[in-house]
Please model this.
Amino acid sequence: MRCKECGSEVAENDVFCGSCGAEIIPGAAEERKSDTVRDESDQSKKKSSEKKKKESAGRKKAVIAARIFIALVIIAVIAIIIVYAVMSAKAAEGRKIFDKMPLGRDIEKISADTGEQFITGENSLYGALNYIADFDYLCESEKSAAVGGIMVPEWAVLLSEDGSGNISQATLYNFYILKHNWMGEKSAERIDISSIEFGMKAKEAERRLGLKPYAIVKDSTENTETYTYRYHYTDEASGNNRVMNFYVVISDVDGQVKNVYDEQLDYLNLILNGTSAAKMP
Model:
C-alpha cells in the first residue's frame, strides 16, 4: 500500500505516512483518540464502581459489627436477668415458708400452718448449720450449695423456741446468694450507712443498696425483721479486701427502717482460729 501524497510504501494499518506525514485513513486519528478517551472514561467508571463497591462493603461490615455488638449486649442483659431470676427462684420456696411463719405458736401449729415438716438440728444433712446459729428446728432445701468450700443447703429456715415452748424467732438463709463468692457482691467502696434513712420503706432501702439479703431474722419479742446483706470492697490503703455485713432492721408495725448498722467480718480469724467457739457469720 502506497501513500497517496508521496507514493511511499506504508503499512496497511498505518494512520499516517512515515515519509510525508499525510493521513492515510481519513478520520482514523479522531476515532483512535475517541477510543482512547472512551477507554480512559471506562477505566474511570470502573475505578469509581470499585470504590463504591468497597465503600458499600465497608458499610455492610460496619452494620454487621454494630448488629453483633447489639446482639452481645442483649445476650448479656438476658444473662443477667436469667441469673437474677434463678437467684430469686432459689430463694422463693424458702421465702414462702418464712413469710407464712406465725411466730408465737408452738412447732405443731407452725407445721400445720406452713404445711412443712420441721426437723431438729441433729437430723440436718448439713452439720455446718449448727455453727452459724442456735436453733431448735429447721426446714432446709433438698439441693445443696458450696459456700467457701462448705456444703450447706441452698436455703434453710431455722426456728428458735422461747421459754414457754413457742417459736419466738425465725431465720431464713439464702446461701445460694453466697454460692459464687462467700464474700458477697463486689462494691467500689464501703457503703455509707447514712444512705439508708430512718423511716424508709424496706423496698426503698434495698433499692438504694442494690443488694439482695442472704439472711432475714424475724423476732417476735422485738417485733422486727433484720435483713443481712453481704458485700466486699478493696481497701485503697492496704489493697486488702474488706468483707462487710450490712444490717437493716425493719419494724413489723409499720414496715419502716428502725435501725441500720454494719460490721467488718474478721475472716482471717474465722479461718485460722481453731477453737470450737469460733462461729461462722
Q: What stands out?
A: Residues 75-272 form one domain.
